[in-house]
Hints:
The protein has 144 residues and is an all-alpha fold. It is 63% helix and 3% strand. The protein has helices at 17-26, 30-59, 63-79, 101-114, 117-120, 128-143; strands at 5-6, 13-14. The chain is elongated and about 85 Å long.
Amino acid sequence: MIKQYPCDLCEKIFNKKTDLIQHKNASCTLNEIKEVKTDIKTSLINVFKSCLNILRDNEGLTGEKAFRNMSYLLILKLLEPQFDTEINIDDYNYDFSHLQDHYIEYHRSTLLKIARFSNLSIENEDNVPIKFKYLWDDYIGRTF
């Protein structure tokens, strides 16, 4: 019977002890990776819980509505690097027929400004919910 040498970090089996030693020294950091993944996962869960608590306590949003709003923010954050390169958000012909003519340009420029997550993140927090609703309903929700 051939003696086998298991890696105590990743549970791979080696036929030679030297292979196991090389594996541990060179490539097996799985235990460290698991710890980092666990830390990242825990941190991410805590961030989402905190966001959901804020939405519940400050905005009265729970359940599906809270998750939908969080997903809108995440989508906007992911889309921003594509603006002006792959997505030409500034020149798209948006339908603002529901607005009076003298409000259209102000509304359009305001929404274009906050369509960039970086601008939305510095917006006065009291204005964010209403502007974000208009941004999604009038702009992004109709575009994509």
